[in-house]
Design goal:
By secondary structure, this protein is of the alpha/beta class. It has ten helices and seven strands. A seven-stranded mixed sheet has the order 3-2-1-4-5-7-6, with helices on both faces.
């Protein structure tokens, strides 16, 4: 497909630089470690995986996976960011297949991936269900999909510079969405694609279940870490008491969901 050429170089420059920041690297590393831990806990292979990076940006996350021997492919709608990702992969001498494509029409065959990563994406795509359909289509039995996105339960958020925005009714959100791309870009820190979708873990879990996946939330993922003492006890308590888990989601500004395709016979 033809990519999106952004003539405002500030957008490309910002994301190219931000993707190399210590904060971004720490986030990508934590995501990778959680995905591998989840596969290991399900007795699935963790070496030489086929990995898809949806919304790959400037390629930092893809490069991290490729350095560990995984076969990685990535897509982004921005032609300029894909060009930067290709150059960075070439500089690192890593054979990563970066393509310009839409998350609603992935250029990969059915059941071709072990891992599909789509962080901070669903909230920005109007047809978010098409993204979910595509990410689940390309996953093999036993494979995992990772999404991180907005959380409508939590009043704190970073998408709009407005207090309690996630709790605004839909009609008011639509108004501020229009303002953010016309006369009030400062509301979203001049972001090119403001958030238009708001989720809960529970809603996304239901969406994934309809597609044949079982899901884990952030607290299930925390339980995979070798925590000890009070922190481990807190995680165990949250997971054991649904009302307390729900309140913990209310206190968390974003949604994380890791879903595994149910293998035949499992």
């Amino acid at each position: 497909m033809s990519g999106f050429q952004d003539h405002d170089t500030r957008f490309v420059d910002y994301y190219a630089e931000e993707s190399l920041s210590p904060r971004a690297r720490e986030r990508f590393t934590a995501t990778k470690e959680l995905l591998l831990a989840a596969r290991a806990a399900a007795a699935l292979p963790v070496a030489a995986l086929d990995v898809g990076d949806v919304g790959c940006n400037a390629g930092t996350q893809s490069i991290m996976w490729a350095r560990e021997g995984h076969c990685v492919r990535g897509i982004d709608i921005s032609t300029q960011l894909v060009e930067i990702a290709r150059q960075r992969a070439a500089d690192a001498q890593l054979p990563i297949d970066f393509e310009v494509a839409s998350a609603t029409d992935l250029p990969w065959p059915d059941a071709s991936l072990d891992v599909c990563i789509a962080p901070e994406l669903l909230e920005h795509v109007a047809d978010w269900q098409a993204v979910v359909n595509e990410c689940t289509r390309v996953i093999r039995p036993g494979g995992v999909v990772y999404f991180s996105t907005t959380n409508v339960l939590c009043p704190k958020q970073e998408e709009f510079d407005l207090p309690f925005y996630s709790w605004y009714p839909g009609f008011l959100k639509r108004r501020y969405e229009r303002l953010s791309v016309t006369t009030r870009p400062e509301l979203v820190n001049h972001a090119r694609y403001p958030a238009v979708n708001w989720f809960t873990y529970y809603g996304l879990r239901a969406e994934m279940a309809r597609r044949g996946f079982v899901s884990m939330d952030r607290f299930d993922l925390f339980a995979l870490k070798p925590e000890r003492g009070v922190k481990r006890l807190m995680i165990q308590t949250l997971r054991a008491l649904p009302p307390l888990r729900w309140l913990a989601h209310v206190a968390t500004p974003y949604t994380v969901i890791l879903s595994r395709r149910i293998a035949s016979g499992s």
